[in-house]
């Protein structure tokens, strides 16, 4: 009983029962579910939950008006059983089992699939009236399109209900009758959803709402849905801008059309890409239905494409006091636009101006301009909103107002300019805006940036946070009153976004310019000097002029002239020209400008000496003497090396020398010269006299000429470096040291591991010499040669030099690592395919790559699978051990090769022999493996042996014979002694020709033994004393092949018909060049020639690669065998008969293409069309094609139909005769009448005596005119649609004076005929 498809329901009263138990046994044996009804309702799961658990019935009684009854339902859902009372779930057996932690005992075996047995264990005495018969009220689901049910639908489950369509224009294409079943979601059991479909088809779109596109970056797509009975041929898309032209599927449009589905719908999706305003328009989706002979259906969808954007990108910054915004609209239709500031609508007027550009070429620009913008009032969010009908677009931007200004005017005196003559210039600039500037810069004349140094040029800033932003001040002080302060000054507040704010001020500077208040002249290199000054400033711009200037020396006038520039040249300058020079300029407005200069002249000479010998090249650490003479005197003397002041000397001596015209001050120093650089350095030495004067806080200096000296660092030019050497090679270490260009005594020392190497001999040599390089520099060169490297040379080496004065050069030690093979592979023996370990070890400065090779003539073979282990000792020597576990099938000679990364040198080990023991299998009496039934085969297993050298052999072996059946290589191997079918005997193992031989005798062989494969497995026992690792070796497989029939198959081109053909193929399995004979029968003895004949046969003989013989037959049928005939294939091998492997059944049918059918009578132009399907044939009459006035249709009666079907099982048509065609004519005219009863008329109407207004001519005239009130054009539909014309000769009225009735009539001629009265009346 399937509880999922058919839930069990039964009813109990309040008494429940006296212990009756309902038990359900499931397929998995003793597993049983119990519900017992006694004083209480309880349940348990046998073999799972033994304790009976009470069922709470309160919820069950609460939902039932009759509280004495409970309707029970047992139902399976998925992998559990549910129990309901009065529709309320009270037990989930699997869930309960899990809650009671019974998973381990039973839930793992839970499988409540199909109940084997359902029984009440005590007597079931329930009466029929006591049985529960459920009823339900069913409603039609919402997705059953157009379907309706009978008005009243409370029915018993299993009742059938007839469905219909809501509208007469629709037809029901689904199930018309459904069965009520509570197991189905809708309550109805049906094969497919019933649905109603419009007969003529309809087109809808998704989405249904209007499509407005404002974002051109994303494509737009919509779906056209066809719903109808006829399958459309295709669908095309068109656009109103190019009527009649189908849209292509290209980079502009993606068109994806689905298949016609089982719900009679087909969808086509149009995606419009690379959007532009030109894509605005009406798109038509047209479904072509030409093949179905029905009209095409189509629908339209409108896309409106509009964009709105700000003319600028990003935020807008106002730095010139105005806000100017523009919104650009693009679209096919014009609309209205409004401006908003902080969500408040902006209106034109005052300082606000709005303009609207012309709408041209689908574009219109709207502008907003605000003057006198301030950071406090005009900053914030602005947006423009464009709207038309239901469409609305808005775009926003953030506006920031930044304002800079000079706070006050310059404090000029009565003159329109200000003299700046050594005075401080101060300017203050203020900024108001949205945030603190990232930088403040000052510029002079717009292009010369002022650099502030915190001393002579200072700037300070101050920040104040305001409600609308920030206020920022920049104050500058310039203490350089020269022409650099003259002109226009700009303060600029800079921001990362590039929107800077500027303010401008004008300054005029006039002053006396000269080379400085104090002139110090070093006459060591020159003897002449010019002294003087000039008046600087744009005097013309302020209307000023110069009277003249005077130059004085120590208050004595030198000369005067009417000029703005005074110059005086002094020749042969010496300390006698020391003094004060002053120049004064007078302006016409009475203002004077003057400046003074003091001249100080000095000279210094440096004289070098070094142990009374001139030296150009020195090694760092040697001492040199320098002497400095000062002409004119000095406050102090300083010494410099490469412009760096020297403060420490070995000795210092000072003396003053009086000459005829000046004082000479002399100082001599001695110092050790050092060079701590990596290479030789050219040093420049000089002395400098320093002089202090009262007129200046500065101390003046004068320098001697530079004295060059090249100093070599006390380091080796070359020294040994860490290196590696290969064992057996020669290795040389060398050092080079710098030397003075004057010979000095020295000694060279070589050390190995801190031991002095002073005894050259058989193992090493030492060579030292002095020479000059190509640059003329002196060198001392030494070398240490190891004649033949071995492992003992591994260690640290060093060289050093020491001069007599104690200067020493000692380079760092260098480490020499020796690379060598320290362990060679060892010879061994192994079983074929077994594992044996080869080892090779190397020592060096880093990890090595170890490879193993098998000798193979000139082209040795690399053995893969080397495992490497690397260790490092405390001397940083790296040991690399390579281990190879080869699996060899034959003996070989191997060796290892060691190579270090980055070096091409290889070290090769000694070659060793690996002896491999193998196993072979063969049959001496039947080597090919082909056998006949009842024969016996001897299979021999031979394994290799090794000689001990004293007449014995090893190793010991165990031999196991194994087999597997079938032709698949994936079959399992089993020991022959575990086989219960194949007969065999294992003979005694013997030793022969250095091999141990085990023989397996198999037989007698039966057909069941086909494709059985044998192999032997030899276990070579380990012998450590002979370095033999042992292992198991299996032979190749030896397969027994028995000749036999393998297959017999049937093939045909389709249904086999009487008189047709079918094909048989019989194949046999046998060795090549066998005598194989095939026999074909269909009654086990012969071929029934009255029914079948072989019209063609062919044969393919087997080969060694493909040992199959195939016989093909082409058989022609002469009769019909609806129940089928049996065919057999038999084969003889070398004249030994064998029976077929199986037989085939062939069923044949009648050929409906040979059956004839005719119409009840011939009709001119009528034809019969045929359609074939799987041997059956359908005949259908085809009537002639008509025209607008005549049509030909089938004339169907009760016994003569439009179609007839021939069954391949009968060979005849049903019904035996087709209907014929008939001719029908179109209706081309229509007559219509209206009758009016005019009982109260006091005169006749439409009569010769009628008033003129109601005369026959007047009424006929009214009837014939196109009027919006009355007449034929309002009464006859085809006149409204212009599908007919009014016949005036048959239009008029008649009056019956007796009955007082007026009859009006009119007749029309149809422009196109119709085929029924219903069409004509429509």
Return the average pLDDT rounded to an integer.
82
Q: What is the alpha-carbon Rg in Å?
A: 61 Å
Q: What is the terminal separation in angstroms?
A: 61 Å
Q: What structural category arises from helix and sheet content?
A: mainly beta
**Strand-residue fraction?**
over 45%
Give the proportion of residues in helices.
under 10%
Overall geometry: flat
What is the subunit arrangement here?
A: single chain
- Give the beta-strand count: 111
Query: How many helical elements?
Result: 6
- As residue ranges, the low-confidence spans are 26-31, 107-135, 409-418
Biggest sheet features: 9 strands, mixed
Quick structural summary:
The protein has 1322 residues and is an all-beta fold. 3% of the residues lie in helices and 51% in strands.
Explain the overall architecture.
There is one protein chain. The protein is mainly beta and 1322 residues long. It contains 6 helices and 111 strands. Strands 61, 63, 64, 67, 68, 69, 71, 74 and 75 form a 9-stranded mixed β-sheet that branches. Strand 74 and strand 75 (878-884) form a beta hairpin. The longest helix is centred in the C-terminal third of the chain and has 9 residues, at 1256-1264. The chain is flat, with a radius of gyration of 61 Å. The model is unreliable at 26-31, 107-135 and 409-418 (pLDDT under 50).
Secondary structure topology:
Elements: E1 8-13, E2 20-26, E3 32-37, E4 41-46, E5 49-54, H1 58-62, E6 69-77, E7 80-85, E8 88-92, H2 93-99, E9 115-120, E10 135-137, E11 147-148, E12 154-156, E13 160-162, E14 164-165, E15 170-172, E16 177-180, E17 188-189, E18 196-198, E19 202-206, E20 211-213, E21 220-227, E22 234-239, E23 253-257, E24 265-272, E25 281-288, E26 297-305, E27 307-310, E28 316-318, E29 323-330, E30 336-341, E31 344-345, E32 352-356, E33 363-370, E34 380-388, E35 391-401, E36 403-406, E37 425-433, E38 439-444, E39 448-449, E40 457-466, E41 469-478, E42 487-494, E43 501-507, E44 511-514, E45 518-522, E46 529-536, E47 546-553, E48 556-561, E49 565-570, E50 579-587, E51 592-609, E52 617-619, E53 622-631, E54 636-641, E55 644-646, E56 651-658, E57 663-673, E58 681-692, E59 699-703, E60 707-712, E61 723-726, E62 731-739, E63 746-752, E64 755-756, E65 764-772, E66 778-786, E67 795-803, E68 808-809, E69 814-823, E70 828-831, E71 838-844, E72 848-854, E73 861-863, E74 866-872, E75 878-884, E76 892-900, E77 906-908, E78 912-917, ...
Parallel strand pairs: 20-26, 28-35, 45-51, 52-60, 61-69, 70-78, 80-92, 101-107
Antiparallel strand pairs: 1-6, 2-3, 2-9, 3-4, 4-5, 6-7, 7-8, 10-12, 11-14, 13-16, 15-18, 16-17, 19-21, 21-24, 22-25, 23-24, 25-26, 27-29, 29-33, 30-31, 30-34, 32-33, 34-35, 36-37, 37-41, 38-39, 38-42, 40-41, 42-43, 44-46, 46-49, 47-48, 47-50, 50-51, 51-53, 53-57, 54-55, 54-58, 56-57, 58-59, ...
């Amino acid at each position: 009983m399937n509880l999922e498809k058919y839930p069990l329901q039964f009813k109990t009263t309040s008494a429940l029962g006296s212990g009756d138990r309902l038990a359900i046994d499931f397929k998995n044996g003793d597993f049983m579910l119990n519900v017992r009804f006694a004083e209480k309702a309880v349940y348990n799961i046998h073999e799972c939950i033994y304790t009976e658990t009470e069922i709470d019935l309160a919820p069950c009684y609460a939902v039932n008006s009759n509280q004495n009854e409970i309707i029970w339902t047992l139902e399976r859902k998925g992998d559990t059983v549910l129990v309901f009372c009065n529709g309320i779930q009270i037990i989930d057996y699997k869930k309960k089992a899990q809650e009671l932690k019974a998973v381990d005992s039973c839930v793992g075996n839970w499988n409540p699939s199909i109940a084997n047995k359902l029984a009440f264990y005590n007597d079931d005495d329930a009466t029929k009236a006591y049985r529960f018969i459920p009823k339900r009220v069913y409603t039609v689901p919402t997705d059953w399109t157009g379907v309706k049910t009978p008005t009243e639908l409370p029915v018993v489950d299993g009742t059938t209900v007839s469905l219909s369509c809501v509208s007469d224009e629709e037809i029901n294409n689904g199930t018309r009758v459904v069965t009520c079943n509570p197991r189905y979601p809708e309550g109805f059991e049906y094969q497919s959803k019933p649905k109603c479909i419009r007969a003529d088809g309809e087109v809808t779109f998704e989405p249904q709402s209007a499509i407005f596109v404002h974002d051109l970056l994303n494509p737009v797509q919509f779906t056209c849905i066809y719903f109808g009975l006829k399958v459309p041929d295709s669908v095309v898309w068109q656009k109103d801008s190019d009527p009649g032209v189908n849209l292509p599927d290209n980079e502009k449009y993606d068109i994806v059309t689905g298949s016609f589905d089982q719900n009679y719908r087909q969808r086509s999706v149009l995606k419009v890409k690379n959007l532009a305003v030109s894509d605005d328009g009406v798109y038509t989706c047209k479904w072509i239905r030409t093949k179905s002979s029905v009209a095409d259906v189509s629908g339209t969808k409108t896309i409106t494409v509009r964009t709105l954007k700000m003319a600028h990108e990003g935020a807008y910054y106002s730095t010139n006091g105005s806000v100017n915004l523009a919104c650009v609209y693009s679209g096919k239709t014009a609309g209205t636009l409004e401006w908003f500031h902080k969500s408040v609508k902006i209106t034109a007027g005052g300082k606000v101006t709005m303009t609207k550009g012309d709408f041209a070429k689908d574009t219109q620009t709207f502008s907003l301009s605000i003057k006198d913008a301030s950071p406090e009032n005009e900053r914030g969010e602005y947006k423009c909103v464009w709207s038309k009908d239901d469409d609305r677009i808005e775009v926003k931007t953030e506006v920031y107002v930044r304002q800079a200004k000079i706070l006050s005017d310059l404090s000029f005196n009565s003159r329109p300019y200000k003299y700046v003559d050594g005075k401080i210039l101060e300017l203050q600039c203020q900024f108001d805006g949205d945030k603190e500037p990232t930088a403040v810069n000052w510029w002079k004349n717009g292009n010369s940036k002022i650099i502030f140094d915190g001393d002579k040029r200072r700037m300070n800033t101050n920040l104040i946070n305001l409600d609308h932003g920030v206020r920022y001040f920049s104050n500058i002080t310039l203490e350089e009153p020269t022409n650099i302060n003259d002109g226009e000054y700009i303060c600029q507040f800079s921001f990362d976004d590039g929107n800077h704010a500027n303010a401008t001020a004008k300054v005029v500077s006039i002053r006396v310019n000269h080379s400085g208040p104090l002139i110090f002249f070093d006459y060591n290199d020159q003897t002449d000097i010019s002294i003087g000054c000039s008046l600087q400033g744009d005097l013309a711009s302020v209307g000023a002029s110069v009277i003249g200037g005077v130059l004085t020396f120590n208050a004595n006038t030198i000369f005067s002239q009417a000029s703005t520039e005074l110059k005086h040249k002094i020749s042969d300058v010496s300390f006698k020209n020391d003094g004060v020079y002053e120049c004064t300029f007078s302006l016409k407005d009475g203002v004077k400008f003057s400046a003074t200069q003091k001249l100080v002249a000095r000279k210094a000479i440096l004289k070098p000496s070094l142990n009374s010998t001139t030296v150009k090249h020195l090694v760092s650490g040697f001492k040199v003497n320098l002497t400095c003479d000062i002409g004119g005197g000095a406050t102090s003397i300083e010494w410099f090396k490469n412009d760096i002041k020297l403060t420490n000397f070995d000795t210092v001596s000072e003396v003053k020398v009086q000459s005829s015209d000046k004082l000479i001050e002399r100082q001599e120093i001695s110092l050790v010269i050092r060079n701590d650089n990596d290479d030789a350095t050219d040093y420049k030495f000089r002395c400098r006299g320093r002089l202090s004067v009262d007129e200046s806080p500065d101390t003046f200096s004068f320098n001697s000429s530079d004295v060059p000296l090249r100093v070599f660092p006390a380091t080796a030019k070359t020294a040994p470096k860490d290196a590696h050497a290969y064992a057996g090679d020669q290795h040389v270490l060398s050092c080079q040291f710098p030397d003075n260009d004057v010979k000095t005594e020295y000694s060279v020392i070589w050390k190995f591991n801190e031991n002095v190497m002073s005894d050259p001999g058989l193992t090493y040599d030492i060579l030292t010499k002095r020479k000059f390089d190509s640059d003329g520099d002196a060198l001392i060169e030494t070398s240490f040669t190891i004649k033949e490297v071995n492992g003992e040379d591994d260690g640290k080496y060093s060289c050093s030099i020491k001069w007599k004065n104690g200067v020493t050069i000692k380079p760092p030690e260098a480490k020499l690592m020796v690379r060598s093979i320290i362990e060679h592979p060892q010879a061994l023996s192994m079983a074929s395919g077994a594992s044996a370990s080869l080892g090779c070890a190397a020592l060096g400065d880093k990890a090595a790559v170890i490879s193993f090779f098998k000798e193979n003539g000139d082209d040795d073979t690399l053995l893969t699978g080397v495992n490497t282990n690397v260790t490092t000792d405390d001397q940083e020597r790296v040991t690399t051990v390579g281990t190879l576990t080869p699996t060899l099938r034959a003996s070989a000679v191997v060796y290892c090769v060691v190579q270090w990364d980055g070096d091409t040198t290889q070290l090769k080990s000694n070659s060793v022999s690996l002896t491999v023991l193998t196993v072979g299998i063969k049959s001496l009496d039947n080597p090919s493996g082909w056998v006949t039934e009842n024969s016996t085969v001897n299979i021999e297993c031979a394994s290799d042996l090794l000689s001990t050298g004293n007449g014995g052999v090893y190793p010991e072996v165990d031999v196991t014979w194994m087999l597997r059946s079938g032709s698949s290589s994936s079959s399992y191997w089993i020991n022959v002694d575990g086989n219960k079918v194949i007969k065999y005997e294992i003979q005694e193992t013997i030793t022969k020709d250095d091999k141990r031989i085990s023989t397996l005798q198999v037989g007698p062989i039966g057909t069941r033994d086909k494709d059985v494969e044998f192999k032997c497995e030899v276990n070579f026992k380990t012998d450590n004393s002979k370095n033999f690792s042992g292992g198991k070796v299996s032979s190749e497989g030896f397969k027994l092949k028995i000749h036999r029939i393998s297959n017999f198959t049937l093939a045909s081109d389709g249904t086999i018909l009487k008189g047709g053909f079918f094909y048989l193929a019989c194949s046999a399995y046998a060795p090549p060049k066998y005598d194989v004979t095939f026999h074909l029968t269909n009654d086990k003895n012969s071929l029934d020639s009255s029914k079948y004949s072989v019209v063609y046969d062919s044969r393919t003989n087997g080969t060694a690669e493909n040992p199959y013989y195939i016989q093909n037959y082409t058989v022609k049928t002469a009769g019909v065998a609806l129940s089928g005939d049996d065919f057999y294939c038999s084969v003889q091998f070398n004249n030994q008969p064998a029976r077929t492997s199986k037989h085939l059944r062939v069923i044949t049918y009648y050929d409906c293409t040979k059956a004839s059918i005719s119409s009840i009578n011939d009709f001119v132009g009528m034809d019969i069309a045929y359609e074939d399907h799987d041997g059956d044939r359908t005949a259908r009459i085809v009537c002639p094609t008509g025209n607008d006035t005549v049509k030909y249709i089938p004339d169907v009666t009760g016994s003569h139909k439009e179609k007839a079907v021939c069954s391949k099982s009968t060979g005849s048509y049903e019904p035996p005769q087709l209907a014929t065609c008939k001719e029908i004519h179109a209706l081309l005219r229509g007559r219509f009448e209206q009758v009016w009863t005019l009982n109260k008329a006091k005169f006749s109407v439409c009569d010769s005596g009628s008033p003129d207004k109601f005369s026959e001519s007047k009424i006929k005239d009214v009837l014939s005119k196109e009027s919006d009130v009355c007449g034929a054009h309002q009464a006859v539909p085809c006149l409204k649609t212009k599908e007919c014309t009014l016949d005036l000769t048959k239009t008029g009225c008649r009056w019956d004076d007796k009955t007082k009735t007026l009859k009006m009539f009119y007749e029309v001629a149809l422009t196109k005929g119709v085929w029924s009265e219903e069409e004509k009346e429509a």
